[in-house]
Structure formats: structure tokens, C-alpha cells
Design goal:
alpha+beta, Glutaredoxin, Glutathione S-transferase Yfyf (Class Pi), Chain A, domain 2, 2 domains, 4-stranded mixed sheet, globular, GST_Zeta, maleylacetoacetate isomerase activity, phenylalanine catabolism
Length: 209
């Protein structure tokens, strides 16, 4: 059972991993905006004390934090692999994933933007742009068809949702041709299409694909 919000980039990462590995699941929507945020309910807090999505019930345990979930899926259901066998490439994948999930996404997520107030769009644009400047530089050394070489990896699962965030906040993508190229290639893949925010059970009608 995946507890998810259609627009959550962290949830999207996990949905891509589940789709790539062919793992079927039931989706329970948790609306981060409605009712003051359904993640703050006592019921959901019991499930995930951090009151964030995603949370995944699998194999008799409940996991939160998208990368922890993806690592568990990788260790228990290794095909297709999302971490390269080569230690150097594997380290690069983890570096890029961490760059996004620690260095960019948390700075522009819903809880932070609420604190920022009126200048939230400008704040989000600045956080994403500074992160993307570094990421573009890194990818010029690591990229093949995708973020690291020619195999889809955990890094790619983090990249696509972050680019969607950038587009939502109207970040100018022109300075990031490598990011743009990789994102476009990944969005052609079926796992990225079925997990897209525009195609979720809880996607509002006006945002559906």
C-alpha cells in the first residue's frame, strides 16, 4: 500500500521505482493541502511520525523517506537494478540523488514555502536554480543517455520530479541543456509516464493528462 500525493515529488520517485520493478500496489491518497493537510491527521501520524508522504506498507513493515524505500526495493527486488554494479558509478548515482533530495527539494517543498510566505515563488526559483547550476556541471561528467551512463538509476528517479517542480515554479531551463535532455528521454519511458502526477487516482480533473 502506497500513501501518496499526486504532486509530491518524493511520492513520484517511489511510484517510478514500483513501476520499473513491476510491483503492483494499492494507492491511498493523502492530500497535503485539503483539510489543513491530511498528513497531519492522528491516523497518518501513527503511520509516519514525520507526517510526510510517501509511506509504503510492504512485506509486513511500513517505510517512509523515498530513498530508504527505493533502497529497500532494490535490495529485495533487484531487477531491474537501479544502482549500477560498478562502485564508482554507484557512488555517482547516490551523489546525484542526494544532491536533489537533500540539496534542492527540501528547500522548496510545501512546508518551507508556507514559512517563506509572499516571496515563495522567488525563493523556490532561487533554490532550484542554484542546485541545477551544480547539477548541470556534475551531469556533464557522468551522463550518458541518462544521469549516469545509459542505464536508468535512482538518480533519474530523483531528477524527473525535480524538473517538474522547476517547471511548476517557472524556472528558466535554458541554462541546463543536459538536465533538459535527460529529463525528456526519461519521460518517454513507460514507468515514468504511468507514475506521472497527471495520471494518478487523486489528480484533480483539470490537471489530468
Amino acid at each position: 500500500i502506497l500513501y501518496s500525493y499526486f504532486r509530491s515529488s518524493c511520492s513520484w520517485r517511489v511510484r517510478i521505482a514500483l513501476a520499473l520493478k513491476g510491483i503492483s500496489y494499492d494507492l491511498v491518497p493523502v492530500n497535503l493541502v485539503k483539510d489543513g493537510g491530511q498528513q497531519f491527521s492522528a491516523e497518518f501520524k501513527a503511520l509516519n511520525p514525520m507526517q510526510q508522504v510517501p509511506a509504503l506498507k510492504i512485506d509486513g513493515i511500513t517505510l517512509s523517506q523515498s530513498l530508504a524505500i527505493i533502497h529497500y526495493l532494490e535490495e529485495t527486488r533487484p531487477n531491474p537494478r537501479l544502482l549500477p554494479q560498478d562502485p564508482k558509478k554507484r557512488a555517482q548515482v547516490r551523489m546525484i540523488a542526494d544532491h536533489i533530495v537533500s540539496g534542492i527539494q527540501p528547500l522548496q517543498n510545501l512546508s518551507v514555502l508556507k514559512q517563506v510566505g509572499d516571496k515563495k515563488t522567488e525563493w523556490a526559483q532561487n533554490c532550484i536554480a542554484s542546485g541545477f547550476q551544480a547539477l548541470e556541471q556534475i551531469l556533464q561528467h557522468t551522463a550518458g543517455h541518462y544521469c549516469v551512463g545509459d542505464e536508468v538509476s535512482m538518480a533519474d528517479l530523483c531528477l524527473v520530479p525535480q524538473v517538474a517542480n522547476a517547471e511548476r515554479f517557472k524556472v528558466d531551463m535554458a541554462p541546463y541543456p543536459t538536465i533538459t535532455r535527460i529529463n525528456k528521454a526519461l519521460l518517454e519511458l513507460e514507468a515514468f509516464k504511468v507514475s506521472h502526477p497527471s495520471r494518478q487516482p487523486d489528480t484533480p480533473a483539470e490537471l489530468r493528462a
